[in-house]
Design a protein that fits this description.
heterodimer; A: six-stranded antiparallel barrel; 12 strands; 34% strand; rod-shaped; B: mainly alpha; 73% helix; 0% strand; globular
Chain lengths: 229, 90
């Protein structure tokens, strides 16, 4: 009797249990696949977007800097910024620049010309704007070296792209000597005039920045430790 | 006079962004002298300092040199004009 009842009910019971089970399993499987596909394709799209954005940034940088006059290689991590206000427009002799493309500008970052020479440091940032204190800012002092002789020299800013230094009498310094930062190998200034007076204990040298800061339109902002290749 | 003050203030704001600093300085100086208690000039100087200023060694490392200068000039012209003209308008 039991067997007869079991056999009679087994098929509908199995069908009753199995069908929803299969249906649920299939649905869950499909849903999992769909979610997985969405997540995977989302990741792929994000990665593609990132690569495309990098490419756009690089091309923008190339267009702005001009590949033929730039010392920056393809993988240079410099941030290009356009100059909004030049030093002539303000009594402080600061540059106001606006970041082009992406990247973070931090206080203390170095600001270089498109040719790679040192211009100054970022004083403060607001959104995509940065205020740059030029190396010729009055009172801005830097310990550097003469490229030709390796003579240490301390340049003090005078404003307007000019700097001055005092060296002991007999120091090996001449007009057109290039002043560099030995640590980073960046050109900082060029000696414009040397005043030697035998009666004085010191030689006075006047230097100027290697670029015309009153005509500058683009700069490159690099982290403080960046060294040109 | 109010319209003139407003126009000059707008002109000053544009001049600090575009023109060489010494033209803006002359413009501000004349405005501070010409208008009665031209406090807008100090506000514009404050804006100017906020945008451009960095501590200057020659001025004891204070950042707001132009604002300080404009404030001093405002006070100076106020006293000077009172002594020169003795009129209510000034």
């Amino acid at each position: 009797m039991f067997i007869i009842v079991y056999i009679g009910l087994a098929k509908p019971l199995a069908f009753f249990v199995a069908k929803p089970t299969v249906w649920v399993t299939t649905f869950v499987g499909k849903a999992t696949d769909t979610v997985g596909t969405i997540l995977t394709s989302g990741e792929q799209i994000r990665e593609e977007n990132r690569l495309l954005q990098e490419r756009i940034d690089f091309l923008e940088k190339q267009v702005i800097l001009g590949t033929e006059q730039s010392n920056f290689s393809e993988d240079a991590d410099g941030i290009v910024a356009r100059v909004l206000v030049r030093p002539s427009a303000n009594v402080y002799g600061t540059l106001l620049v606006e970041r082009v493309g992406r990247g973070d500008i931090r206080e203390g970052d170095n600001v270089l010309s498109t040719e790679g020479s040192f211009l100054g440091v970022v004083e403060s940032t607001t959104f995509s704007f940065a205020k740059v204190r030029l190396s010729s800012h009055p009172g801005f002092s830097q310990s550097l070296s003469i490229e030709r002789s390796g003579l240490p020299i301390t340049l003090v800013g005078m404003g307007g792209g000019n700097m001055r230094a005092e060296l002991p009498q007999g120091a090996d310094i001449e007009q057109y000597d290039v002043v560099v930062d030995l640590e980073t190998q960046r050109v900082v200034a060029e000696i414009g005039e040397v005043q030697k007076d035998e009666t004085q204990a010191f030689v006075r040298a006047y230097a100027r920045m290697p670029v015309n800061i009153f005509e500058i339109t683009r700069v490159v902002i690099v982290p403080q430790v960046y060294v040109l290749e | 006079m109010l319209i003139a003050r407003t126009l000059v203030s707008i002109g000053l704001i544009f001049s600090i962004l575009i023109l060489p600093w010494w033209i803006s300085a002359v413009f501000l100086f004349v405005s501070l002298f010409y208008f009665s208690f031209y406090i807008e000039g100090v506000v514009i100087a404050l804006v100017y300092d906020t945008i451009f200023s960095v501590p200057v060694d020659y001025f004891w490392n204070i950042e707001y040199v132009v604002t300080a200068g404009a404030t001093l000039l405002l006070g100076f012209f106020y006293v000077l004009k009172k002594r020169l003209f003795w009129t209510q308008e000034w």
